[in-house]
Automatic annotation (TrEMBL):
UniProt lineage: Bacteria, Pseudomonadati, Pseudomonadota, Betaproteobacteria, Burkholderiales
Annotated protein name in UniProt: SAM-dependent methyltransferase
Gene3D superfamilies reported for this sequence: Vaccinia Virus protein VP39
The Methyltransferase domain, residue ranges: 44-140
InterPro entries for this protein: Methyltransf_25, SAM-dependent_MTases_sf
Cited CDD domains: AdoMet_MTases (cd02440)
Keyword Transmembrane: no
Keywords: Methyltransferase, Transferase
PANTHER family per record: EEF1A LYSINE METHYLTRANSFERASE 2, PROTEIN-LYSINE N-METHYLTRANSFERASE METTL10
């Protein structure tokens, strides 16, 4: 797992709107979450959400049970300042997802855009999946987005693992039902195109 110091330096050294993964609106993520159809009381956790605008978009849609986890306290502080009073209702967790003390069977929806592909060590990936098994309700939904095979080989100076839908699903195992997948051509603030794949699985009962 990339070090906490690395990510604190990233967010301390450049605006959150300048990092390559920045999105003014997390349109595809919101669409996939809404299509699940669980309603606005669904418990949603955004892994590596940090300074992401997904929490703004979901709060704006009326979702009221939101948790954001990130390794970087600086990233979380950026989002809290941006949300202002709306951020008081959000749970903010500064932690490593592979080791965090997450509650058992707490979340209806687990969302991760661009954390899992940084887990280049198999032991970290297994720890991540164990956290999903612990924290997501039986039959809950897991949305994970990574760079696709034609995406970058590294990000923020760090190596990544690229996936297609089948290999990403395979990291979670056949017990997880693959509901669907979406491709995204993300335009970075610098104008480059990065290709992502989003997989939507259901955790076994």
């Amino acid at each position: 797992m990339p070090s906490k110091e690395h990510w604190e330096n990233v967010y301390a050294s450049k605006p959150a709107t300048a990092v390559s993964w920045y999105q003014p609106h997390a349109a595809l993520s919101v669409d996939m979450i809404q299509r699940i159809g669980l309603g606005l009381d669904a418990a949603v956790i955004d892994i590596g959400g940090g300074a992401s605008t997904l929490v703004d978009d979901l709060a704006g849609c009326g979702y009221g049970d939101l948790t954001v986890l990130d390794l970087s306290g600086e990233a979380l502080a950026i989002a809290r300042r941006r949300l202002g009073s709306r951020g008081a209702a959000v749970r903010w967790l500064e932690a490593d997802v592979t080791a965090a003390a997450l509650p058992t069977a707490r979340f209806d929806i687990w969302h991760d855009r661009a954390v899992f592909h940084f887990l280049t060590d198999e032991a970290d990936r297994r720890a991540y999946v164990r956290q999903v098994m612990r924290a997501v309700k039986p039959g809950g939904h897991v949305i994970v987005a990574t760079f696709s095979p034609d995406g970058p080989a590294e990000c923020s100076g760090l190596p990544v693992v690229r996936y297609d839908a089948d290999t990403l699903h395979g990291e979670f195992g056949p017990a997880f039902q693959l509901v669907g997948h979406e491709d995204e051509a993300h335009t970075t603030p610098a104008g480059r195109i990065q290709h992502f794949v989003y997989c939507h699985c259901i955790k076994p009962h």
